[in-house]
Write a structure and sequence with these properties.
This protein is α/β, with parallel strands linked by helices. The protein is about 50% helix and about 15% strand. It is built from 17 helices and twelve strands. The strands form two sheets. It has a seven-stranded mixed sheet, sandwiched between helices. The longest helix has 25 residues, at about 395-415.
């Protein structure tokens, strides 16, 4: 039954969503993990819970016209896929990147359902974005784009309906422009977006949350093998929000981070990455990672981002983008003695790479568990906005650590219960699915 269940589901998904391989990949992984749960529960099968979960509640595609600095009209496409609101308002980031199309948003929105369920907070799953590329645009161009994007999006979101946040290409600057336009249109000050600036409704720790949460999660994975971060050579891909704060927390815990990257190439600094330099280049100057060697001539710069996985390390934290570690990169990591992989990005390992890690006893923390700290802290931002209160850094950070501990426990327990002890991929999928499935059963065919 499990195999035929997976193939039946895949037949529906591929027929209904042709040419969306990332979405198919995400559905297959979850279907393979939860087939044993569905098999044991005739009610889940009869009421077609999984068939319903793979169909978004609502998908919105819209035109985003804006005027560039030369006075030319530009036209981009905007998306919001509201996937599942069984356990709370839709919640998930916005991605601005030229690679964005409906299939990317669907894969991200689908993953978000289970990730959000694992956070222990009441939020449903969604994702959105645009094929707009903020790279090389002036701030006024980014502002005009964000305003036009919100001119349509505002009618579909709200603090109790759908609360977007950032993702690739959407940081505090973009959230500011989006929030300003929303507030102007609806004439109400609510927590409709998360990732806001600290002085206008944002939460302490939100900027750091995904990276810090990733390191808290990997700490538990290492502990289970009797290890700590101390002295572990660590490679982090990307140099954006997730990568920077994963590096910061890993260094605080005693790791030696030796490489980071961007989509052009990667740097290796065997003295240990100087994070202040990376922050200045990426957060302030919005430059390229190659500029790092101007300050640190002993470091090396290599063109091409894929090569980063050939840098020998004990721990790998892929924190750039989907499918960045393929089978051959995974095998190289294993051959070089890597003992743990924690996914900071969404679905950064291909299915073949995941198989190689699991077969070679590499501790593997899948994205929907390991990077859930970002959305969990967004959920804490929503709580603070509703209360009109601001919690201290310490309070939010403590809650984040407790949430990451709880996610780790849920994953290990579910994996154990369903006969795959130590397999956090199966554990995360089952634990997230069960929570959403129970809510959907309780709420009828809706
Ligand atoms: P940022 O835009 O801040 O940074 C992205 C980084 O990844 C940049 O260094 C970028 O390089 C690199 N990158 C992006 N696309 C590619 C590509 N196709 N090939 C190689 N490198 C690439 O994004 P975030 O740090 O916010 O997001 C990174 C990952 O983490 C994404 O998968 C996102 O979905 C996931 N994530 C983010 C969360 C958050 O809170 N921000 C929460 C949970 C998951 P360049 O500058 O050259 O484009």
């Amino acid at each position: 039954m499990p195999n035929s269940f997976v193939e039946d589901i895949m037949a529906i998904v591929t027929a209904r969503n042709p040419l969306e391989p990332e979405f198919h990949q995400a559905v297959r992984e979850v279907a393979e993990s939860v087939a044993c749960v569905i098999e044991k529960s005739p009610e889940l099968r009869k009421l077609k819970i999984f068939e319903r979960i793979i169909e978004p509640e609502r998908q919105i595609i819209f035109r985003v016209p804006w005027i560039d600095d030369n006075g030319e009209v530009q036209v981009n496409r905007g998306f919001r896929v509201q996937f599942n609101s069984a356990i709370g308002p839709f919640k998930g980031g916005l991605r601005f990147h030229p690679s964005v199309y409906l299939g990317i948003i669907k894969f991200l929105g689908f993953e978000q359902i289970f990730k959000n369920a694992l956070t222990t907070t009441p939020i449903g799953g969604a994702k959105g974005g645009s094929d707009f590329d903020p790279k090389g645009k002036s701030s006024t161009e980014v502002m005009r784009f964000c305003q036009s994007f919100m001119n349509e999006l505002y009618r579909h979101i709200g603090p109790d309906t759908d609360v977007p946040a950032g993702d690739i290409g959407v940081g505090t600057r973009e959230i500011g422009y989006l929030f300003g336009q929303y507030r102007k249109i609806v004439n109400t000050y609510t927590g409709v977006l998360t990732g806001k600036g600290l002085e206008w409704g944002g939460s302490q720790v939100r900027t750091q949350a995904t990276g810090y949460g990733l390191v808290y999660f990997v700490t538990r994975m290492l502990e289970a093998r009797g290890k700590t971060w101390h002295g572990l050579r660590t490679v982090v891909s990307g140099s954006g929000n997730v990568a920077i704060y994963a590096t910061e927390k890993a260094q605080e815990c005693g790791a030696k981070v030796v490489a980071v990257s961007d989509s052009s190439g990667y740097i290796v600094d065997n003295d240990g990455i100087q994070l202040d330099t990376v922050k200045r280049i990426k957060e302030i100057e919005r430059g390229r990672i190659r500029e790092y060697i101007n300050d640190h001539p002993r470091a090396e710069y290599h063109e091409g981002w894929r090569g980063i996985w050939s840098v020998p390390c004990d721990v790998a934290l892929p924190s750039a983008t989907e499918n960045e570690i393929d089978g051959s990169a995974a095998q190289t990591l294993v051959n070089n003695g890597c003992i743990a992989v924690g996914e900071g990005a969404n679905m950064p390992s291909t299915p073949e790479a995941v198989r190689i890690f699991l077969d070679n006893n590499v501790a593997f923390g899948p994205a929907k568990a390991a990077n859930a700290g970002g959305v969990a802290t967004s959920s804490l931002e929503m709580c603070q906005n509703s209360q009109r209160l601001n919690w201290t850094f310490q309070e939010v950070d403590t809650r984040l650590q407790l949430i990451m501990d709880s996610i780790y426990e849920q994953c290990t327990q579910a994996a154990e219960e369903y006969g795959s002890p130590g397999n956090l991929v199966v554990g995360a999928n089952i634990a997230g699915f069960q929570k959403v499935a129970r809510a959907m059963l309780a709420q009828g065919v809706a």
